[in-house]
Structures are given as C-alpha cells and as structure tokens.
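[INFO] parsing input record for Carbohydrate binding module, family 6
[DEBUG] input buffer:
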Amino acid sequence: KMKLIFGVMLGLLAVSFVNAQNPIIRNQFSADPTARVFNGKVYLYPSHDIPTPQDKNLRKDWFCMADYHVFSSDNLTDWTDHGVIVTQTKVPWLTKINYDMWAPDCVFKNGKYYFYFPVGGRVGVATADKPEGPYTVLDKPVEGIRGIDPCVLLDKDGKAYIFTAMGRISVAKLKDNMIEVDGPVQTIANLPTKGLIEGPFAMERNGKYYLTYPHVANQIERLEYAMSDSPMGPYQPVGVIMDESPSNCWTNHHSIVNYKNQWYLFYHDRDYSPKFDKNRSVRVDSLTFNADGTIKKVIPTFR
Ligand code: FUB
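[DEBUG] output buffer:
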C-alpha cells in the first residue's frame, strides 16, 4: 500500500513538473521562437503576438505584431524578459505600419549581434554589442531579399547563409558585412511543392546540414526536415519532427538548439488562447538524433 501511495505521489509530482514547463513565456503572447546560445545562456528571439487593436483598420482574424522582445534563461524554466528591442515605428526605411513583424533571428559575428526581422515583406537588420541589446536598426533592409521568416546559418568556416520564405524557401550567401547578399538568391529544390509557406530554420550538426520547416501536408502545419551535405543544398526531405498541433493551432514555427549537451526544439502552440490561434505561446521540448543523424519525432509536452 505504501508503494502505491508513493507511486501516486511521484505521479502527481511529475504532472506538476510538466505543468510548470510549457508554455515557457507567460507574461505575453509569443511565437516563432529562435533560440540561440550566447555567453552560456539561451537567448530567445520570438515574435510577439498582440490582440488586434480595435481602433485600427486591421484584419481582426489575423496576426498582429508590432515589436520584438528578447528573453534569456540559464535553466530553460526561468526566463528574463529584457523588454522591447525593435519596434515597427522605429524602422527608418519602413513606409507602412502594418503590424507584421513576423519571425526573427539573431546571430553573433564580427563581435556584433545581428538581429534579422521581417516586416513589410523585407528583412531588416538591427545590431547590438550584447545579445539583449540595445539594438540599432540599420537604415536599409537586406538588399536583394524579399520574403519572411529569415534564418541565418553561420557555418563552421565563418560563412553565413540567409534562408527566407515566400511560398517556397530560398537561400543566399551573406557577405562578411552580414547585411548584403553575396551572389544570387536560390530557391531550395526538392522540397514539397504544396503547403510550404514559411518558417525555415537551418543548422549544421556533425557535417550534415538540416533545413527544417513547417509544411501543410494535411490541414495545418507540421514540422518537417530535409538534409544535405552542403548549406545551400541540394537537400533531400527526410521526415517529420513534430506532428500537427493537438490543439489545432494552424501555424507552428521552431528552432533547434544545443544547450549543455542536450538538443531542444523550441516551437509554439496556442496555450493561452484556445479560441484564437494567432495569439500563440512559446514551448520547448527535448529533441534527440538517431545514430544516423536523422531526428526522432518530438511529442509535445502537454500542459
Ligand atoms: O508569426 C507570423 C507567421 O506565422 C510566421 O512568420 C510564420 O512562421 C507563422 O508562425
């Protein structure tokens, strides 16, 4: 009998631990999380969903995003909100305020942090000396690129590649200055021709390149990936990282990061907004690789 009581207590403890885990950002809606490790901490650069202001002439059933916050943590449970780093009203080249600050990324190169953000169909850049800012928005977007959801892959040889989406995924090499493309923008071949809209995330592990992306294979997005021996491809689709949201959130958007020798998948769902899936919340779960480098499917931790 004692064993049974102990078992039940352990079970309750496990449930309350899981309860404490997801979603990880609790003071606001957050989506499209790019997690990066800088200076021994995980920095999280998500987009920031807000309820649509009623006094503006905006689509009521759509994404509404006016700025970006950055968060950091050294245990993936306690997150510090460092506040707003970039806001739509302070982008010098932006001609129309449209509440469309979608999925961003941030990388460290040449002693600086480069924050890439999509707005108005272009990719803006802001730079800082520290991962949490303050950031200065550069006076023009990345020339030659139109699209959303930038992801920058910094390769081991120091070269940088920018992936973006616009109904398909494209890649271009970045010049050493990190703000101009070096050569043509290329469409990634061999990926699904339908249902691939947005959200690329690219990374390297053990000499293999992974291009991961949301794909609408059925009704809503699920996370899939392709692999290659080189950053610009050719990539071959391999499989599914995470199935469609159990709560039917139409989008999913993610990043994969190694922190303290464990891989993690950051993604989002609609934990705090069951009736409106454009107000999302960032989540995290462990991710593991098989011996051959393929990825084991991640099952989301439920609340
Ligand atoms: O957050 C707005 C858009 O929804 C992102 O750009 C997409 O990846 C999807 O999550």
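[INFO] Residues 126 and 138 are 6 Å apart (CA to CA).
[INFO] shutting down worker
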